[in-house]
Predict the 3D structure of the following.
Amino acid sequence: MDTALHKWLKIPYTLHVTEFISPKKPKATFILLHGIGNSAKAWEGLIPLLPKNVRVIGIDLLGFGKSPRPIWAKYNARTQARSVSATLLKLGIIQPPIIVGHSLGALVAVEIAKRYRFRIKKLILCSPPFYKPTEEKRQLLQRDAILKDLYRRMQKYPQTLESLSPLIVKLNLASKALDINAGNVRSYVAALESSIVNQTSLEDAAKLKLPITILYGVLDPVVIGSNIRLLAKQNENIVEKKITTGHEVVGRYVKFVANEISAVVN
């Protein structure tokens, strides 16, 4: 029945939701979308720093956390965006929300804004891995191509990813919510292929008309700052902010995100 509904009839999944802050009359509504291998738990360090007069909802993306993990799904940005949108519709959110997306979640946020632009108020994108197409020979030595090749190599050895995830967390290179295990490693690899390696997010973001703030760290090994700076020049709706952090929203990075959220409602 599950396959019939979602694979053949194309009905999007609804996802697991965590209501972090739920005031009776929220001044604004924020949707938090985590990065690859994480879940809504990745945002727990952010919540104490946020204003209490806003509604804050964390969503586990398809294939991660407590959301469904269909083995046949493509896990591309389009599929994720449809599932997030179905989830928001089920929640009955009246206010156009502000979407805060980290890494993979940032790419999903762009796809949501592309498809449902009149329903979204603003995007706050944290460490978006925006890459250019790398088909042309002259691009083969660019960082875009090098990083994509690294991701393709990671796809070939999913067991290595699973065994290294505890060490990555221990070294503080990822949030404690990072969890790559036998149950979700297939989703992780599929998301790498569909959403990050074969993405159109950079081109899509350049065409969006709503306000967008992009945060990225100077110490981030997987984000290409020149792509983001060029994007901000191409689209007057985009404000880019370079900060002294790495990729994950941990430590000092949390305060930068909290300040951006608070600035929306102050």
